[in-house]
What we know:
The protein is mainly α. Among the domains are: 12-54; 103-209, no CATH class; 216-240 and 250-255, no CATH class. Helices cover 64% and strands 9% of the residues. It has seven helices and four strands, in the order αααααααββββ. The chain has helices spanning 3-56, 68-88, 96-101, 107-122, 133-187, 193-201, 216-228, and strands at 231-240, 248-257, 263-264, 270-271. The chain has a two-stranded antiparallel sheet. Strands 3-4 form a two-stranded antiparallel sheet. Helix 5 (133-187) packs antiparallel against helix 6. The radius of gyration is 37 Å and the shape is elongated. The model is unreliable at 259-272 (pLDDT under 50).
Amino acid sequence: MSTKSITSQSSEDRIKQLEQELAKTRSELQTANADLQTAHAELADAHAGLDAAHVEEPETHINLALTDQRLTQALDAAAALRGRMETMINGTELSESERRSMMGSGVRRYGFTDKVSDMIDINPDLVPQYLDEERLKELLRQLEVVRNINAILLQTVRMNSDIMLVLGDEAYRMALMFYGAVRDASIRRVPGARELYHILRDFFRRRHRATDEPTEHQTLRDARALIHGTKDGELIIRNERPHATGGIHEVIDDTHKAKAEWKATESGEFDE
């Protein structure tokens, strides 16, 4: 057999081998594509189930009957009421120091004042000459009306707060659905989804300034981390009970994650 025929036979064998490897690779790709299609179908079913659960979820809150017209009317009525209140206080308001200096009209003080008014009617001989009885009775009548207005306003504020909670809850849940879809798309490397996910993810990050004193919850959490050895650093709590010149309470929380600890994020990045 000549060298040329040997070379030709070797080339043919190599071509057959490459064709077999190519066929095997195509088969593996088809299998992987089928698995991917199955995963996408399961993910779509999961989203559909989540949407169905959200729609079929029994309502545990008030049933709203809102329209844009009704909301506009309520807003106009609230603004008109505020305008009437402004005319009654001559367009001014009490400063914080003035509010603290006022005795107010709580239950006890109002009850005491009303009782004094009744005693004045029964014991006119005990009323000092410098006390204006009619002015006191007029103040009590007006105070009663204002207290009734305050009760109505408190009820109104509670109703408006309930409406805000219901609207905000539904809107936030719908926004979370979109956020979940964007996060899944980012994991699947859909073009453009990663950038949207990074923008929305910032809303769920709590930024802690280094100058802020740690909260009690953060301090306890860091203390447990130090005890279990999952963080490096030290935790110092100094306290001095208050005396005539005041006490001292200081928390020095100098902890950080262990250098060898790494945690994978949802987006495939790694944070130390």
